[in-house]
Every structure is written in structure tokens, then in C-alpha cells.
Design a protein that fits this description.
Layout (H helix, E strand, L loop, with lengths): L2 H20 L9 E6 L5 E5 L4 E5 L10 E7 L4 E4 L2 E3 L5 E2 L5 E7 L2 E10 L4 H4 L5 E6 L21 H13 L7 H7 L9 H10 L4 E5 L4 H13 L3 E7 L25 H4 E12 L2 E7 L18 E4 H11 L2 E5 L9
Parallel strand pairs: 3-9
Antiparallel strand pairs: 1-4, 2-3, 4-7, 5-6, 5-8, 8-9, 10-13, 11-16, 12-13, 12-16, 13-14, 14-15
Helix pairs in contact: 3-4, 3-5, 6-8
């Protein structure tokens, strides 16, 4: 082979190699390198391996809409949200909701998930990210009771168990058990009725009244919130079929965690206690004690009916279908305020 031919082959190889080096690699980085929220002390965690960004806003931030991010990307990249290009220090977004950046360069792209919150617990509870309002009438002492093992009629003892919890909440020295309530009324079995709740509260000198609930979802929500704000608790009798079932019964503290049976009156007519509320992502959840744990607990051993969260619109539908009233209970020695 002539030297000129060899030289030509080598030259072509070198030129071809150089040409490839000049082209962007299909594996070129499409990362968000730095990220912060303009004029905010929010803490930002960038997780490159998961292509995600977690933002913790201060508790005082109730509205995270129309905020501007300052960011840098991998060289040559651009970022878009729903095909709209994002400019650092310019583009506004609503951080109250999860959204995704698409970071791309030369045909290569990756999606980055942005999740924000203003607290450290509502997301893990299954409630959402941004808490706007919260109130609770919990006590320093234990007063939750599971209707399981409350005697022969345990599976229908929601009424006796709920009223006993209300009595314990109202009077820290109250020592009776749900079994005592069952023996006091309908000792031979059967579901409790509203009058049984009234009679038992009266018998034990617990301040109470019966309050009609409004005919609208908003009216019912505001009425129950007001009772919590007045440092009182409410007992509801409702159709649990109208309280949605959670798709994450293993971890979530929101929505119903047990099955119901519409054909059985005893299964869906159910008493619970309203003791607080949280407004998260503009949705109101009522904090309840549901006695129907039946021994079912989370991994940490806490019973699933304790500190449960049911949506306000579900409770409205559930009471409207069953008993559109509420028992209001105040602390012993005080007077109920309606």
C-alpha cells in the first residue's frame, strides 16, 4: 500500500473522530443545577438521581402562587412547563401544586418534579401540601377508645364508645367504659339511637345540646368549624358509605380505611366525634375520633381511627343521608354555646 493511501485513511479517521466530538452526546446532562425562590427563605432540596426538587416554605406562607424561581441548568439546556419556556428570575408558577419541568438539549430531555409544602406533616398524613388553617380540641390526657373488645356487642358499639369518649373529653375524671354505656341503654343489643346519646350525656351531667345542621355543604362546614373554634366537640351520626374510601389504607390518615356494607343498616349507621379541622390546599378536613379501629393500626402501633381526617363535603353528604344534626358537647362545669 502506498504511503499516500495510508495517510489518507488516517486523515479520514481523525476528521471523523473530531466531528463526533463536536456533536452533543445523546447522554448530555439535562439537570437543574441550582434552584431558589426569589425573595423567599424557602429551603430547597435538589435530588438529581430522582429528578425532583422539594421545597419547604415557611409556615407563614399560605399562598404560594405567582412565585418566581431563579435557577441554572446544565450547559445548553432550556426548561419548559407544558411547552412554555421558563426563564430564571422571570417566569411565575403556582407552588401550591405539584408541577413538572422538562429540561432538554439537542433532542435529549428529562422531566423534573417540583413538590412544595409549608409544614412537615400534612403530606405524610395524606392531606396535601399547604395548610391554611388549623384548630384542635385535643386533651393532654388519653381519651380515644376503640370499640373492639367493649363487650358482646363490640361490632355495633360505636354509639356507646363515642359517647364515652365525649364524656371523658368533657371530664378528665370520668372513669366509665363503653360497656357501662351499653348496659345503661339497650343492654340486650341493637344499634344506639340519637336519644340514647342524649340520655347518657344527661345521666352523667355532661353539658350538651342538639344542633340542626344547615342544608348546604358550606353551611355545615362552617357550623362544625365554629363549634371547634368554641372549644367544643360534636358527635355525628352518619352514613359511612358517603365517606370515601382511601386508596392508601396502609399509610394515609385521610378518608375511610375500612369497608362498609350498604345492605346492612348496622354497618353504615355510625357515630364519630369531631374534635378539630385542617384546611389544606383549600380543602377542609375534619379531625375525628372514629371508634371503628377494631384493633387495626399503623406500623407505629397507633390505631387508625384515632386522629382520622374526613373531608367536609363527605361529612355533609353522610349526615344529610342519615341524621342531619349534631350533638354538641362542652367541658363539664360550662355551658354549651351554639
Amino acid at each position: 500500500m502506498k504511503w499516500s493511501a495510508v495517510l489518507l485513511i488516517v486523515l479520514c479517521f481523525v476528521l471523523n473522530n473530531c466531528s463526533k466530538k463536536d456533536q452533543p452526546s445523546s447522554g448530555q446532562d439535562t439537570n437543574i443545577v441550582t434552584y431558589s425562590i426569589q425573595n423567599s427563605p424557602a429551603k430547597v432540596e435538589i435530588l438529581p438521581s430522582q429528578h425532583s426538587i422539594n421545597i419547604r416554605f415557611p409556615d407563614s406562607v399560605m399562598n404560594a402562587d405567582n412565585l418566581i424561581a431563579e435557577f441554572t441548568l446544565s450547559p445548553g439546556c432550556k426548561a419548559t412547563i407544558k411547552n412554555i419556556e421558563q426563564l430564571s428570575g422571570v417566569s411565575k408558577n403556582n407552588y401550591s401544586k405539584v408541577f413538572f419541568y422538562t429540561v432538554s438539549v439537542s433532542g435529549n430531555s428529562s422531566d423534573w418534579k417540583v413538590t412544595s409544602t409549608n409544614n412537615d406533616y400534612t403530606t405524610s398524613l395524606g392531606l396535601g401540601n399547604f395548610i391554611q388553617q388549623s384548630a384542635s380540641n385535643d386533651c393532654s390526657y388519653s381519651w380515644y377508645m376503640d370499640q373492639m373488645n367493649t363487650g358482646y356487642y363490640s361490632y355495633i358499639n360505636c354509639g356507646p364508645t363515642t359517647v364515652t369518649m365525649a364524656c371523658k373529653w368533657a371530664d378528665s375524671e370520668f372513669s366509665k367504659r363503653p360497656e357501662d354505656a351499653r348496659m345503661a341503654y339497650r343492654s340486650e343489643g341493637g344499634d344506639w339511637y340519637p336519644d340514647d346519646i342524649t340520655f347518657y350525656l344527661r345521666d352523667n351531667i355532661i353539658p350538651n345540646s342538639t344542633l340542626a345542621l344547615p342544608a348546604t355543604a358550606e353551611g355545615t362546614t362552617q357550623t362544625l368549624k365554629r363549634q371547634v373554634d368554641l372549644h367544643q366537640v360534636a358527635i355525628l351520626l352518619l352514613d359511612m358509605n358517603s365517606v370515601r374510601f382511601t386508596s392508601d389504607a396502609v399509610f394515609s390518615h385521610a378518608d375511610r380505611f375500612y369497608t362498609t356494607y350498604p345492605e346492612s343498616y348496622a354497618q353504615f349507621g355510625h357515630f364519630i366525634i369531631i374534635k378539630g379541622y385542617k384546611e389544606v390546599d383549600n380543602e377542609v378536613y375534619f379531625e375525628v375520633y372514629d371508634p371503628n379501629s377494631l384493633g387495626v393500626s399503623y406500623g407505629d402501633g397507633s390505631l387508625k381511627g384515632k386522629d382520622r381526617y374526613y373531608r367536609s363535603e363527605d361529612l355533609f353528604e353522610a349526615t344529610k343521608k342519615f341524621w342531619q344534626k349534631a350533638f354538641i358537647v362542652a367541658k363539664k362545669g360550662t355551658t354549651v354555646i351554639e
